[in-house]
Amino acid sequence: MQSIVSDSYSVHFESNAFEALNSHLSSHNYSTIFILVDENTHELCLPQFMSEIAGDYNFEIIEIESGEANKTIETCVGVWEALSELGADRKSLLINLGGGVLTDLGGFVASTFKRGIKFINVPTTLLSMVDASVGGKTGVDLGPLKNQIGVINQPEMVLIVSDFLESLNERQITSGFAEMLKHGLIRNADYWESLKQVSSLYELRDHILPSVALKNDIVLQDPTEQNIRKELNYGHTLGHAIESYFLENENKETLLHGEAIAIGMITEGYLSYKLTGLPLSQLEDIKSTFLKYYEKVSFTAKDIDAILELLKYDKKNSHGNINFVLLKGIGETQIDVTISPELFQEAFAYYME
């Protein structure tokens, strides 16, 4: 399978991934190779990963706890301390084997340890393969506020091996599918239509490369998110606020990223219908498609008020404005749209009706 070339690295797929990794390791004299895992990838993915390594290297394994709740500076401190205690130096390599939480955090740890060591990302969830695999965003949450601390820094390479998806449950697969659907909504109506026909994990595997290629095309044009890269945030302004609210509220069941973003794409679809010309028929298509895959969530008036209060922390805000990415139509966006507060209530009402 053909690799995708990004700005300063490549994304390698399936058998090519391990060929690229082994070639890289043999041609670089790393002092120590650290592999960052969580308890799940340690058990379910690390043995397969290690079995593909050709050559004799000095490996050290560092394990963190899984889950968005552990995407914190405190976890970073633990990894930094482990690296230091295990003798990591500036010629060390960190391989991040896990989902988006782990690759985001691991990339940030590597980018800041001794002012930066090299790292490789090996995403093991569908979400991390189609979202975190490209773009160089690293970082952690600040309390319940998502991705407030971080840097943009590129890995040496990204390795996507779809066999790792077999370690996931259906809910995690569906969470990642939301980001793929988003790629169709913002850039390619035909891709959106093709994804709507997907009925199994094995069909989804064929769509991973097109999703990565679509995101890579956007990132190459705008690496630091000054302009069109903002398109990738469709559904994420309200979606991240919803995700943060459910994460910090002990009376709510935590939503996976894709589950929250699905709600964000429906509600921001409604805003698009009201403000940027999204046809009603396409809005209804968006809503019915997401509700086919994602169970509807109930919101009280108190929930909505608390979620809207979190919007002021969104990373895209500037000069006191909350900036949204909206749709002109399926496959076409408009960035930096400001919203009247009363429309937020309407958007949630539309979602729940």
From TrEMBL:
Domain of life: Bacteria
A single GO BP: chorismate biosynthetic process
Keywords: Cobalt, Lyase, Metal-binding, NAD, Nucleotide-binding, Zinc
Ranges of residues in domain 3-dehydroquinate synthase C-terminal: 176-317
Keyword NAD: yes
Gene Ontology terms: cellular component: cytoplasm
Name of the protein in its database record: 3-dehydroquinate synthase
Species, as recorded: Maribacter aurantiacus
